[in-house]
């Protein structure tokens, strides 16, 4: 079913121009601090891991440094694993789940793999609890050359020297009620298209790569996370957010074709996690733990192969 959804910016059936983007930016309010919530946690990890600034977002009079955490004893002979969080800044457990993984689990992999963790790819959006960046662009549709998003371009520059060495990439996300109440209506308004309502799944699920499916890898993560929080069921069409459920809690997207973050390394094992923080059956603590457990299980599976 297609409906006309009210969105307070723009004219139906007409894509936004500069005036509409200005009006949209004027509505964005800073709700939290990247420096206090994220950078301070990264700083506390510096005595155990190497931390590098891999870029800086510059938006008008705002500057946000971008940080990555590396294994302390990086070994050029070892394969690499990339963990990313906060590609969509509003997806809170992606950020804090990545940091929790580093704090609680990462040292166990010393001498086994090189870990590279970018816990908050989109700090401007993190502060505003938003999906898009300052320019009204979705970074997770912008991992292509040339990228229109500063966030995506910076991350691609970070991983470029290591391409061919990654065995796994785990990209941490959330699906929230605000996807349906705010972000998808905004997307339709921005692009001058009709809004098509969908369903938000209640539970955790994964997105595998249509072009490189790894069902055993995905299932190992699902089994580990299911001990922490519930897995999203298929809807009455056998789908989750409009995609066929190919296994318990697993759907597939063509990652590279869509410009998704999980497609940037060319690793054999890739996944995008999707936590549902608005569920009455899940707490913020469970959401953060589910993300950390997903990363831990993913790397454990890879090392066992």
Structure description:
Residues 30-305 form the Peptidase M14 domain. This is M14 family metallocarboxypeptidase. InterPro entries: Peptidase_M14. Belongs to the peptidase M14 family. The protein is an alpha/beta fold and 305 residues long. It has one domain (18-186, 198-304): 3-Layer(aba) Sandwich (Aminopeptidase), CATH 3.40.630. 31% of the residues lie in helices and 19% in strands. It contains eight helices and ten strands. It has helices at 18-26, 34-44, 92-104, 123-128, 150-159, 177-191, 215-225, 284-304, and strands at residues 50-59, 62-70, 80-85, 114-118, 166-174, 205-209, 239-240, 243-244, 250-253, 269-275. The strands form two sheets. It has an eight-stranded mixed beta sheet, with helices on both faces. Helix 3 crosses helix 8 (284-304) and helix 7 packs antiparallel against helix 8. The radius of gyration is 19 Å and the shape is globular. It starts with 17 loop residues before the first helix and ends with a helix. The model has no long low-confidence stretch (mean pLDDT 97).
